[in-house]
């Protein structure tokens, strides 16, 4: 026995600056009312097989995922993930979605005394003497279960349904009362309990829910996870809801892109009602089964901002879509209303189809170019992530010159990444108005030189703020002015023959 060495030398080990805050994946999120996805949940899928396993290969979700995950950009990159979130435009009843049935029908149809315990809103109900001896298919099994369940006295069961899904090989029970409520399975542990046989011993539960507006669905979903960059609603929304969603998205200040489709006859209405709401991408509707609102979502998700020169022009991108505009007059009219479309031109007898023109709604202060908007989405998120990582990693960020230096260094690293990936442009000629604006905003007559020649100007100051309870708190306020990377949409030339 000796005196502990720690009495003299006591060393504590740990990883410094280990905290890290991830940036958002700018993937597409699709809001669906399909009951295959439980209420209040979302899934992120990396393959169409994953989507098919949830919704079925004949579903619209699967078809959208096929277009989304199958597209390859000019940079030979593609979207790595697609997100689906459940919303309830109408009140929904609780649902039990069984797991895949793995036991062959012939191995258990001899059952004549099966039992099952269901629990609706905390009240258990027992089913006994389930007889499957005469069934010849899983569909008949579902009918036998449904008949027995509907015989129970609770209102939840009187109009309940049981459906067999032959593709995914599972039984789904939908309760008979829409609205808030729960429906679960309780295993008795008896040999006669059939819950495991029919895939209900470890099912997926979807609670009942009241109807929610699209804005409520967005709010609830983003509170759960905001890990997406663009979104759309599969269900056709009332126009008032479309406008409300555009307002909601505008209020998020360049955080998400909202994509919708409209008929040509509604182009004027769409422009007048949505023109002041930034981040809304309106496209001309295509033929049935095609999703012409999805290209911006797909292009954004296929842009990997961790790589060099990846910023993309959303125009001149080709998709397996049928052109909706083939006439110059119609094209000009839609362009004037900021309605995007999949258009066709031709040269030397060759048809050229591509997405046009990659613009968004928004007022004079909003970035209306999809490339610029997406780049700023990434830049805002990257800056926020790095700042939070700094705050979590250091013991403190002081409200003095040292703290200012730490923040500026952190933000400079983000700005350099933005130069690398094409978000910030170096060497773009600034107009006189832009030079004057930069000078006015920075109170620095040389700032515009820095923006033009190095791509950005950055500053940070510390300010005291008096709180409502009289306390004084300090905050760091930074300003980043940068030269956005503009894209060319048209080339004009002059050929002079001498």
Explained architecture:
The longest helix is centred in the last third of the chain and has 24 residues, at 370-393. The strands form five sheets. Strands 2-3-1-11-12-13 form a six-stranded mixed sheet, with helices on both faces. A four-stranded antiparallel sheet has the order 7-8-4-10. It has helices at residues 48-55, 60-70, 138-150, 155-158, 214-224, 239-251, 267-274, 295-301, 328-336, 370-393, 401-421, 432-442, 447-454, and strands spanning 28-32, 42-45, 82-86, 95-97, 114-120, 123-130, 161-165, 170-174, 183-186, 204-206, 230-233, 257-262, 280-284, 341-347, 350-356, 456-466, 472-482. It folds into three domains: 28-86 and 213-356, no CATH class; 95-206; 396-482, no CATH class. The protein is α/β, with parallel strands linked by helices and 498 residues long. Helix content is 30%, strand content 20%. The chain has 13 helices and 17 strands.
Features:
6-stranded mixed β-sheet; 30% helix; alpha/beta; 17 strands; 13 helices
Outline the biggest β-sheet.
6 strands, mixed
Strand ordering within the main sheet: 2-3-1-11-12-13
Work out the radius of gyration: 29 Å
Given as residue ranges, the uncertain stretches (5+ residues, pLDDT < 50) are none
Give the count of structural domains: 3
Our estimate of the beta-strand percent is 15-25%
**What is the chain-wise order of helices and strands?**
EEHHEEEEHHEEEEHEHEHEHHEEHHHHEE
Q: Mean pLDDT across all residues, rounded?
A: 92
Structural class: alpha/beta
Note the gap between the termini.
Answer: 103 Å
Let me know the number of strands.
17
Shape: globular
Q: Tell me the helix content.
A: 25-40%
């Amino acid at each position: 026995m000796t005196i502990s060495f720690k009495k003299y030398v006591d060393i504590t080990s740990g990883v410094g600056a280990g905290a890290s805050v991830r940036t958002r994946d700018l993937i597409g999120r699709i809001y669906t009312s399909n009951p295959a996805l439980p209420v209040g949940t979302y899934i992120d899928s990396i393959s169409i097989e994953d989507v098919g396993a949830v919704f079925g290969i004949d579903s619209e979700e699967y078809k959208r995922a096929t277009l989304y995950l199958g597209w390859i950009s000019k940079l030979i990159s593609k979207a790595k993930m697609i997100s689906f979130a459940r919303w309830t435009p109408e009140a929904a009843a609780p649902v039990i979605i069984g797991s895949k049935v793995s036991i062959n029908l012939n191995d258990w149809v001899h059952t004549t005394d099966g039992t099952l315990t269901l629990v609706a809103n905390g009240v258990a109900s027992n089913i006994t003497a389930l007889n499957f001896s005469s069934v010849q298919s899983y569909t008949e099994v579902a009918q036998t279960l449904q008949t027995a369940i509907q015989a129970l006295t609770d209102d939840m069961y009187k109009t309940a349904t049981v459906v067999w899904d032959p593709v995914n090989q599972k039984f789904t029970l939908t309760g008979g009362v829409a609205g808030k409520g729960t429906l679960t399975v309780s295993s008795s542990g008896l040999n006669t309990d059939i819950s495991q046989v029919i895939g209900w011993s470890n099912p997926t539960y979807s609670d009942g829910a009241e109807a929610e507006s699209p804005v409520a669905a967005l709010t609830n979903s983003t509170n759960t996870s905001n890990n997406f960059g663009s979104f759309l609603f599969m269900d056709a929304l009332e126009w008032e809801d479309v406008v409300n969603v555009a307002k909601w998205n505008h209020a998020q200040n360049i955080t998400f892109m909202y994509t919708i489709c409209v008929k040509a006859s509604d182009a004027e209405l769409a422009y007048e009602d949505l023109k002041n709401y930034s981040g809304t991408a309106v496209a001309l509707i295509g033929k049935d089964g095609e999703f012409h609102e999805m290209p911006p979502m797909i292009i954004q998700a296929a842009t990997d901002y961790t790589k060099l020169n990846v910023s993309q022009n959303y125009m001149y991108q080709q998709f397996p879509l049928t052109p909706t505009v083939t006439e110059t007059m119609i094209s000009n009219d839609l362009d004037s209303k900021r309605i995007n479309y999949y258009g066709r031109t031709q040269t030397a007898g060759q048809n050229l189809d591509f997405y046009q023109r990659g613009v968004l709604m928004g007022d004079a202060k909003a970035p209306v170019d999809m490339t610029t908007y997406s780049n700023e989405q990434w830049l805002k998120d990257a800056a926020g992530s790095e700042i939070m990582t700094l705050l979590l990693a250091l013991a403190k960020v002081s409200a003095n010159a040292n703290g200012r230096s730490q923040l500026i260094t952190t933000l400079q690293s983000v700005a350099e990444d933005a130069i690398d990936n094409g978000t910030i442009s170096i060497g773009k000629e600034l107009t006189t108005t832009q030079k004057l604006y930069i000078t006015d905003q920075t109170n620095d007559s040389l700032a515009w030189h820095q923006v033009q020649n190095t791509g950005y100007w950055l500053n940070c100051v510390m300010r005291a703020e008096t709180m409502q309870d009289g306390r004084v708190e300090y905050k760091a306020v930074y300003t980043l002015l940068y030269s956005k990377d503009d894209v060319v949409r048209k080339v004009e030339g002059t050929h002079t023959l001498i």
